[in-house]
């Protein structure tokens, strides 16, 4: 998974005591679904091999995620983050 990809891509590593699954460099679609009281976020590989869903987000969860993504984009734009990177952790309503 050390390759550099030119566009958005999906890398997945799932490992437990019995097996390991690796998918590298997949072309993803980001899917956002809004329902009456919840938001679902999906990351689907276009080849159908991987589907990841983060479900039942509240409006506040979604806003925290949007804030973290905006902060990350701003850090890249103003070059305040280096190759060592920076991480933003987004918790859920239940975590606060």
Name a few traits of the molecule.
single chain, 96 residues, alpha+beta, three-stranded antiparallel sheet, two-stranded antiparallel ribbon, 20% helix, 35% strand
Would you spell out the secondary-structure blueprint of this structure?
Elements: E1 10-15, E2 20-26, E3 28-34, E4 39-45, E5 51-57, H1 59-77
Antiparallel strand pairs: 1-2, 3-4, 4-5
Would you mind describing this structure in some detail?
With 96 residues, this protein is α+β, with helices and mostly antiparallel strands. It is 20% helix and 35% strand. A 3-stranded antiparallel beta sheet has the order 3-4-5. The longest helix is centred in the last third of the chain and has 19 residues, at 59-77.
- Which strands sit side by side, in order, in the main sheet? 3-4-5
Helix count? 1
> Which stretches of 5+ consecutive residues score pLDDT under 50?
none
Quickly give the structural class.
alpha+beta
* Beta-strand percentage range: 35-45%
Q: From the structure provided, what is the oligomeric state, counting identical versus distinct chains?
A: single chain
Largest sheet: 3 strands, antiparallel
What is the helix content?
A: 10-25%
Alpha carbon gyration radius: 16 Å
How would you state the average pLDDT, rounded?
A: 85
The H/E string reads: EEEEEH
Tell me, briefly, the overall form: globular
What is the tally of beta strands?
5
Task: Give the end-to-end Cα distance, rounded to a whole number of Å.
Answer: 34 Å
